[in-house]
Amino acid sequence: GQVGGTRAHGDSCWCGVRARRAISTSMAAVMLWRPAARCSRLLTGTIGTSIIRRNFCKDDKAIKALSRYPPRYFDFKAFRKALKEKKESLGEADIREVRREYALPPPEGWTVLTFLERIKFGDGAEDVANLFEHWKDFISMSSKDITRIVDISVTQRRKLSKYITLFNHGLWPKASPDEFYNRFGGKKLAREGEPWTPQDDERLLEKAEFYDVDFGDPWIYLSWDLQRREDDVRERYIELVEKPRERSTRCELAITKSSRPLHMHRKFRMLPADLYIVPSEDNFPLAPKRFTLPAAFAKYRQDGIF
């Protein structure tokens, strides 16, 4: 009986210790949960909508909790977002000023209302025209600026964006062929069409060595340095360098392995085009003919073909 009573007493002590530990753990959890819940309500704005808003009016009353316990953290994410928006707005303002400065003048007798009538803008054309004091303010609008115009339909926004872009690129309204050529004809190079001189030939050879004509496509650079067209520069280089070099050697016809099929895939192969360059006596000195046909194939030879 004593043993049993002692064991029962020990069990009751052990249960009391466990109960006290459980109560202390639950109290600590409650103490930690209350500030966390308070912070979550502050961050989500469940206490009041004035916390997540900025008070710009004096009539708005701030929440006592916010005034008594101001937030002591720095919202770096919101700061970066605001900084990015500020930079974008400043960049858009600079681009808008550049577009406004270089905007094309309107056709003779045109106004903003005339522009809208020509594109068949529809209802509200006069209201939209009254929004702009100057032609440059209207014609320099971007797609984002067009979306800020209220009380117009999606179709009208698309028309504005399309025809403003076409007008700024000189593609609308349609011009006469002569005027169109003057706009997009380009400028003539300084020495285009002039005959070649020995000084020009020397400069061509010098620039050809500088740009390495055997690598890539250097003719566009040679064309700009010499102020001549690319075809003219290439043909002159062939006359000066390529033809004398080929005439100083003997040429013959050779069939290489280039006619082998290209195996692009196990179930697909591509036969390359056969290109045979046959030199002529007019341009190249030919090598002496040393070809002999074996006797076994002599009976199949046709003199009219080969």
Walk me through this protein's architecture.
This protein has helices at 2-44, 64-68, 76-101, 112-118, 125-129, 135-139, 143-147, 154-168, 177-184, 198-211, 219-226, 230-247, 295-298, and strands at residues 262-265, 268-270. With 306 residues, the protein is an all-alpha fold. The chain has a two-stranded antiparallel ribbon with strand order 1-2. Strand 1 (262-265) and strand 2 form a beta hairpin. The longest helix is centred in the N-terminal third of the chain and has 43 residues, at 2-44. Helix 10 (198-211) runs antiparallel to helix 11, helix 10 (198-211) crosses helix 12 (230-247) and helix 11 crosses helix 12.
Overall radius of gyration: 43 Å
Which range does the strand content fall in? under 5%
Q: Trace the largest sheet across and list its strands.
A: 1-2
Q: What percent of the residues sit in helical stretches (DSSP H or I)?
A: 40-55%
Can you count the beta strands? 2
Number of helices: 13
Global mean pLDDT? 77
Shape label: elongated
Task: Please outline the major beta sheet.
Answer: 2 strands, antiparallel
Question: What sequence of helices (H) and strands (E) makes up the elements?
Answer: HHHHHHHHHHHHEEH
Q: Give the distance, in angstroms, between the N- and C-terminal Cα atoms.
A: 130 Å
Low-confidence runs (pLDDT<50, min 5 residues)? 1-15, 28-57
Secondary-structure class: mainly alpha
